Amino acid sequence: MKFKLTLEASKSATAIRYQDKILLMGSCFTENIGAKLHRHLFEVKENPHGILFNPMSVIGALQDYIDNKQYNAADLFELNDLFNSWHHHTRFSDITASATLTKINNSISDAHAYLKGADKLVITLGSAWLYCLTDVAPSGAGLVVANNHKAPANWFEKKLMDPVELAAQLQKIVTAIQAFNNKIHIIFTISPVRHLREGLIENNRSKSVLIYAVHDVIAKLKRVDYFPAYEYVIDDLRDYRFYAEDLVHPNYAATNYVWDKLVSTYFSEDTQLIMGEVAELQLAKQHKPFNKASIAHQAFLQKSLIKTQALQSKYPYLPMTDFITFFSEELINKA
Q1: How far apart, in Å, are the Cα atoms of 37 and each of 7, 190, 263, 301, 309?
Q2: Where are the domains of the chain?
Q3: Nearest to 76 by CA among 104, 50, 49, 56
Q4: From 3.40.50.1110, 3.40.50.300, 3.40.228.10, 3.40.190.10, which CATH number describes the 21-267 domain?
Q5: Engineering a disulfide at 166: which of 93, 213, 239, 332 sits with its beta carbon 3.0 to 4.6 angstroms away?
Q6: Residue 50: in which H helix or E strand, if any?
Q7: For 117-160, how does the pLDDT look when each residue is reduced to its tens digit (9 = 90+)?
Q8: Is 36 helix (H, G, I), strand (E, B) or coil?
């Protein structure tokens, strides 16, 4: 007897390779997947504006990268002894306007160059609820904010995006990105993180808007597809035991399950073999011996160094320098 439905991974015609430059944009779920890509030594840049949940902030950030926009003091506001940007995460906030602007503008310049040469762009949308400034807030009414920066509640009003409007906005930014970089392939996902501060019904309304809009774009444009991270957690795993204690964020097991599906969908068998070798070296690097000077551990380090050098020789594009340095420096007898 079957007790659950399983959503099988479908191999994509577009492969993610080690030679690819990958830009990740969107919600905190993006960073979970980004951490796994980093661990396997893929070239990745994550959220140059910081974590972004709503699609209009993601769209605005991508337009900033295309335009290489440089912010100035008029784009900031002061709150809680910090200078902040409504379009950026709090990690850009600082005690002086110049420090905040330096971080913001350096990040945009880096993202502009990275997006121009990127092979893959993964956009994870979290919520279709927008928080807009009211007329009592600095910067004027109507501005969609990416982060509330712990500002007073009466500075904001919220509204749910219209799915047709969102589809049009997404289509516009995808077209602009592909004009800016004619080789890039875009992968949309919907975050499985529940936005319970809106309420369960409101969260489902929001996810429905995102799903409609993304699939409308995919149906109309080329070099765009959808990875069903949301469906893997909500419909395949479908159990609160796959969520953290807050019942909002997918836990370690769920994230690993989605990662395995991503690997099956976008990575070739050859790429997966390299990933396996990299994972073994990561474990070797983290190994904590009882006695560093023991013959057994020194032999283990020597073996790991030889494996690292062989992997680097076979795949010169892999960034193995840190591994070679680590294993070399841990060896007592380097002769």
Answers
A1: 23, 18, 10, 25, 21
A2: 21-267, 276-330
A3: 104
A4: 3.40.50.1110
A5: 213
A6: none
A7: 999 999 999 999 999 999 999 877 899 999 999 999 999 999 99
A8: helix
